[in-house]
Amino acid sequence: CTGNGICKCRVCECFPNFTGSACDCSLDTFPCMASNGQICNGRGTCECGTCNCTDPKFQGATCEMCQTCVGVCAEHKDCVQCRAFDKGEKKETCSQECMHFNMTRVESRDKLPQPGQPDPLSHCKEKDVDDCWFYFTYSVNSNGEASVHVVE
Q1: Which CATH number do you get for residue 127?
Q2: Known SUPFAM superfamilies for this protein (predicted)?
């Protein structure tokens, strides 16, 4: 019974939290918990302690990896552009669509937050509407508050 139950008359009687003919299926959902607190990132089902991703775009142990999804940088580029430089596709709707993060301006790229801080951090290099590069970081703290640092 794979150490998770007792064999009685050739049948496994599983300990609590285990099931299956050989008690080899854990009912524990903890291994399926994604970083956002959802089981399998809300994109799959937890079967025997393993995620079965039902959304084909997502994979990985907790259905959090998405190779074809738009990255953090591209997703927030337009909002950073309108908040920091008052231009871009969202210039007219900036105050409605782009207030979901705290923004800090920094003088140069070396003043941007660096990896090694406790919050996940993305370093971004994007082109603006004038075909110029601009640089920013995007991070989310443990309270779910987003923070952007952008080079002036």
Answers
A1: 4.10.1240.30
A2: EGF/Laminin, Integrin beta tail domain
The mean pLDDT value for 128-148 works out to: 85
Bridge-based pairing of strands 146-151 and 101-106 is parallel
Tell me the residue ranges of DSSP E strands in 9-100: 11-14, 18-19, 25-26, 44-47, 50-53
What's the CA gap between 106 and 127, in Å, rounded?
18
Q: Which domain holds residue 24?
A: 5-65
Distances (CA, A) of 105 to 29, 75, 130, 135, 147: 42, 19, 20, 11, 11
Residue whose entry in the numeric block shows the structure tokens 């090694």: 116
Predicted confidence (pLDDT) per residue in 44-80, tens digit: 999 999 999 988 888 888 887 776 676 788 889 999 9
Same domain, 90 and 108: yes
